[in-house]
Amino acid sequence: MNFKIFAMIFALYYLNTTIAQVDSLSPKISNSQLVDFEISKNSDLKEGILNLHSFISKQDTSLTICKDGIEYRDFILSEFFPEYYPLYYLEYHLLNILQINDTKFEVEILNKLDYEKLGNDYCFQFEANFIYNAILSKVNNKWVVDLSLRHANYQKQKTSFGNIYHLNNLNKGFYKDYKMFLKKTSKQFHLSKPNEKLNYIIGNFEIFGFPYSMSATNRYFKKFHLIVSKHNISIDKHEFSHYFFQDYSFGLFLNEGLAVYNGGSMGMTFTNFLKFVKETYIATFSDEEQKVLIEKLLMNQIEGGSFLPIYYACSGLILQEYFKKNGTEHFIELPENDWKIKPADFLSKYLEVPADKQVSYLIELLK
Asked: Which domain holds residue 52?
């Protein structure tokens, strides 16, 4: 008898401990007073909000639909649940509810980091990762999160033009520019033509339901073979450079260094981008601040704010010095073990810059 009681107590303890562990690994979810007020008036909506909570806490895709297919659904999920942070570091705040009709509501969700858990583990610190306008719909008597693209923002008919599938009308000179840039890059780096078809969307992240997102600039998403661009006047050579080198799993330093060197950044050529970074950012730092910043950069200790343009510029500058010495033709033959190399190790190994000279070497390049 005593053994049975002990077994029951142990089982309850194990169950409670397991639940606590699961909860501790789940994101924090909260409703604003406005959301609580709205669901207090509508018991049916309350069930929908509970399903929305369940979707967030468990990443339960059975509670979602997407009329545009699994590829776009998975892309939206990758933005909604950022992979670069553990899920339990994230907070999801349901801010507001807008009723569209009796069975459809728009729920505004703010996502940010839980800084109490975050501590000093990460350098990135932003007030919000994104705002997402979730569409909560009742389909076949079940509340689901509709992850379909916002069709009012783009042409529904998906068409193909050469190696690019696009959802919008492209400027007449767009594909011509693309072919010329691909030909130039392929010849310069001895690259093969990309195998994967590129999905290309013109517009901002509102197409996906994100009126605000840390990703809401022109971006290439390798996993989804997708470029989101704000315009179709000309190609974004930086993002297309990422696409051209998609078969090489370079780390951040080589990945961004190549894209900046080959395609510039922020709509500028590499030369103009360097000038912009020097005048806008570098000139504002004291000598000591520059030294500290370069030391972090060399070890790939990435931060937000003005650090990223400087990191991109320095990555491009380091590769520019490498190409002056070795040319571009055999760059893709770098040993795979070095694809994720740190800037400091690259300078030592390929440019023979001693560790104690690297900070002054980069500062000189930035003048």
From this structure: 25-148
